[in-house]
Amino acid sequence: xxxxxxxxxxxxxxxxxxxxxxxxxxxxxxxxxxxxxxxxxxxxxxxxxxxxxxxxxxxxxxxxxxxxxxxxxxxxxxxxxxxxxxxxxxxxxxxxxxxxxxxxxxxxxxxxxxxxxxxxxxxxxxxxxxxxxxxxxxxxxxxxxxxxx
Length: 149
Hints:
The chain is built from 5 helices and 2 strands. By secondary structure, the chain is mainly α. Strand 1 and strand 2 form a beta hairpin.
């Protein structure tokens, strides 16, 4: 089946179906009206977008303002942002004492001293840590307090 003008074609031949110019699926033709070129409006729109992008690129090339990449964009990929790094939890006593020293300094002259509404949460966390230390220390914290003085 050819897509010729009806006056040029054999009168016995008539178009029954053709493929979509964009996606290649079969389109049935009833024999009346304009012969379909695209199967759906979305295929017609996609083809027009490519044609118009190519025309714009050609105009830019002719004007000398074309960038290095003149192909139309065919897909856009979205990638999730990388997760922020998780803070490293100290595992050695020296690291913990350094962190607790930094906490003490921030409480004395930093922004943590001004955020009094967060102090109960901080105190509860420190008391939980002291309770755990009391449980694992031979003789408990009383024995440690005697050594400190």
